[in-house]
Amino acid sequence: MDGLLKVETVKDDLIITISKSGLKCSLESGQLDMLIGGEFKITDMNTFLNEFKNYLTMEREDGSTPIHLMFDNVAAEMLENTDEGCEVID
Asked: How far apart are alpha carbons 30 and 26 in whole angstroms?
């Protein structure tokens, strides 16, 4: 997905940008198909994007969102592979 996904820091902000075509490619590439047990296809990109962004920020009972869970998963994977800038405190 080179060029379709961009992650950068600007001042105090982490900015994650994905193009519409990058998101479509990512979701229709097969990983999601295995999770849902069938082929996933976006039929109306604008309608899908409006609903998708709502789900990205939808809070669960504990206050977490899918974005928070993604950050947690990435940090956990980092801890398995590197100790650069982070650590586990018992």
From this structure: 8
Domain of 34 in residue numbering reads as: 1-41
Per-10-residue mean pLDDT, the chain, length 90: 82 96 90 91 97 96 96 94 88
CB 21 within 8 A of CB 4: yes
- Write out the two tokens for 11: 């001042």
Number of domains in the chain: 1
Is 0.70 topped by the overall pTM? yes
Q: Indicate the Cα dihedral angle 83, 84, 86, 89, nearest 10°.
A: 30
